[in-house]
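Sharing a chain and its predicted structure for anyone who wants a worked example. Both blocks are below, sequence first, tokens second.
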Amino acid sequence: NRYIDQKDVTIRQLATEVEAAETEAMLARALAEKVYVWITRKDFSTVLATATEVARTRSGDCTEHAVLLAALARARGLPARVVVGLVYVPSLGGFAYHMWNQIWCEGAWHFYDATRPDGRCGAGHIKIADAALDDQSGLTVFLPVVRVMGRTEIELRELVHD
């Protein structure tokens, strides 16, 4: 589709730079780590770029990390989608909008966050919706988060860092 353009030559080349892994989950994690390293310039000026744009500019925020990871996973034969929701940000003392991924591995959807060096998601990630980003604008993916913002109360009872 327009945003997750896994058939683009740039995406296919970048996906092949990640070595084969013993399991699908290990491959998905390696792809997330590749995206984390690949995007060298954190840039919040773009609302939603295509995976090819991200691969070429090497810049973006969580939305660009997510579309690039989805494209790389699909290029390697792993079904992938983006997830929108909230993530706890300790420096803010609260939750902020965030986008990350689910990748189908070993018969189930697993979460991956390419904005983190280890690609992991934790209890601070609250999924509100997922999307394949196959609609024309792609921006409708943000609507479920907008609907709950300001009307949701989240009480943090305990925070344990691992």
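Comments welcome. Strands lie at 41-42, 59-60, 80-89, 94-105, 108-112, 125-131.
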